[in-house]
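Possible regression after last week's pipeline update?

I re-ran a chain I had predicted before the update to compare outputs. Posting the input and the new output here so someone can diff against the archived version. Not blocking, just want to make sure nothing changed silently.
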Amino acid sequence: MTLILNRRGFLAGSSAMLALHPFSVRAQGGQAHLRIMETTDIHVHVYPYDYYADKEIDTVGLARTARLIEDIRAEATNSVLFDNGDFLQGNPMGDYIAYERGMPEGAMHPVIEAMNTLGFDASTLGNHEFNYGLDFLMNSVAGAAFPIVSANVVTTKGESIIEDETLVPPYVILDREITTGDGETHPIRIGVIGFVPPQIMNWDRKHLEGKVEPRDIVRAAEAYVPKIREEGADIVIALSHSGIGAAEHEEGMENAAIPLARVEGIDVILTGHSHLVFPGPDYEGHEGVDVAAGTIGGKPGVMAGFWGSHMGLVDLMIERDGEGWRVAEAEVEARPIYERGEDRSITPLVESFEPVLESVAQEHQETLDYVRRAVGKTDAPLHSYFALVADDPSVQIVSNAQRWYIEQMLAGTEHEGLPILSAAAPFKAGGRGGPEYYTDVPTGDVAIKNVADLYLYPNTVRAVRITGAQVKDWLERSAGMFNQVEPGQEDQVLLNPEFPSYNFDVIDGVTYEIDLSEPSKFDREGNVVNPDASRIKNLQFEGQPIDSEQEFIVATNNYRATGGGSFPGADGSTIVFEAPDTNRDVIVRYIVEQGTISPSADANWHFTPLDGTSVLFDTGPRAAEYLNDVKGVQIAPAGDGPDGFARFVIRL
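New output (post-update):
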């Protein structure tokens, strides 16, 4: 079937006339402006809604990106729209469909419904498409009114890559008609090939083992792209659900965009997976890319953020080349749906596109009912009122879930058998947030939206492999939360107001004391200022002093593992596992699997006793209700603190 590129029925008459792109304006006979649009990593974010917080937001949503699509198509004489994968999983709507409503044969997935509404030309599979199993995946994509391609997921191996049987078609050639600068129309054949990280076999082994096998991204491209050209493709576009990583090819690499772009015959590369933006400051100075020119491995390329935050644009000026077409010029842009002010305020740049909202309105309401309903129970209250002074249930549940997840992910790997620790910090712990800014989930039912109270940020899980000495220094860095105190003095101020609570990591799996009489080894920025200081005392693993040379796995998040907070042992070089899942999703899965969770803190750390010494700290007034639950510390009310806080005294 041949389609006219600049005719999309659902948008007819819906957009005001916008200024044409310069390529459309100056194209002559034999020349045409082709605009390639990309969405990526939508993760079921159709509505501009944070289901965890249960409120509308302006930073996400395919419905918002859709409004960009409407305008962007109006700026170009010819356009095509592609999605780069990770559309089936990633927020509570995705979990609702997978775990509650189900995807029987013939059912329609809401994100596919929304994509059909927008008239996508093709998509590829991302790694998260496999999270719910192959039956769920195949039943979901069966409803797509557009081809879905992936060249490196094999169900049956052949004598060569080109003879492999793939899970979905490895590529598609789109027959289109394109309008040139003189108003004439001509046929054009656009080859579209897709790729996913081979690491799907690590991330979703339980769903995939014995059923599919991944191929190396670049090797698959080298096999298929010549075939696409032989079949008459004028232009080849790679839908690479793979990030921008090392410039040189390594077998089985996860982030292969640069060496993939260098494969002969590929004209344009659309990337994703990393939840970053290209072109833009995320990749300034990165080897193998040119941010100013918008090229990846020398080819025009784009990465359009995540959750609908941006629309990726690659504008091509193409020229007739004999019977075919060639790329003469290219411009690249990642266009946002919002802007962030210097004061961190958010200004939306577009409104939602109503037809997209209407297409999934029922599932949106069902998801709201789902997140407001209990998915498990807790037999102890989850609160953070004392999270900075004693082992705490709200931090404990995060640590438990991370450790549970990493144990599964590292099974069968070279790291299996190493002791697994878990590092987590309190996010809602008063401070500048005020006396109400604390986690407070009572005993009983736990709803999905409560998870936002436990874990504020959309971080993803990471695991690092470090030594016992680095574990100790990690905790020394964390202990910068506290002021140094003078032994024998009463009512000294405990907390350092310049130290953020999200950098107060508690590490579960070891036991330790914090000696407040010692100075902090590190300053606020993580620089060593007192090299001989040792606040961490009696650090033990399995009841024995920790071996400084022994290796440990520490479950944490992407912020910490890549250097956030400047923690020893967490600078990006020690990462051994990068999870595709957010910490929030892992906590939800943990609660669902456990049914009833028991998050009461195990008091694996406490302050070193100091005779005749007491300290003061301020927390939320409701803390008094949980005073009897605090373990490992002598604490008592001490009147009112400033600005609505309650004051407590700890006798060391």
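Follow-up from reviewer: compared with the archived run. Residues 50 and 131 are 21 Å apart (CA to CA). Marking as no regression found.
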